[in-house]
Request: fold
Amino acid sequence: MAHKKKPSVVYWLGENLYINITNNCPNNCYFCLRNFKEGVGSFNLKLEREPSTAEIIAEIEGVINKRNWREIVFCGFGEPFERLDCMLEVCRWIKRHYGKIVTLRVDTNGQAFLLNKGREVVKELKTAGMDKVSVSLNAHNKETYNQVCRPTFENAFESVLEFIEKAKELLEVEVTAVRIPEVDIQAVEEITRKMGVKFRVRDYIQPFW
Ligand code: SF4
Reply:
């Protein structure tokens, strides 16, 4: 009888090590990989429960010396800012033990402020040792954002833009958009140009984002 593969908290692709800390997300993007796949490569990213911070650290410890990782990235089948305190603690631990050899990045939908009201999210990230943020903007206006990302929060698009503005003050920021018919890629690029942040287009249903 075929057995389902054990869900992975850490997984890798090329030179990067990824951390899958949650499957929760306030969006329901129609293009989300979770709608089509169980995971990435041979890894199952559908968690049966959220791992504790100690469990995440133990998983990282088990693989950190496996390769000369270029980046360690918080990115899985959910939004990492759903678990800000956990992410900060893991960041601090990695920086304390391996800070000289790895860069830390979080891939996010940019709704950190909505998910963590009243927190100084960007400052806290910076203090914990986060180096980079990659934000999926995925739309050139609110109407399109609501159509393709189907957010739970009403002012999600505005809040993502606010997060990008604040994040660029302290962190290296990249903004991305998926190439789908509803999205005017040039207009998204124009938004990022005006904001002075890097922009990258992601192809729809590529193996990874
Ligand atoms: S924001 Fe990311 S994780 Fe959340 S539904 Fe969209 S693609 Fe999926």
User: Anything to note?
Assistant: The chain has a mean pLDDT of 94. The two ends are 32 Å apart (CA to CA). The chain has one domain: 10-203.
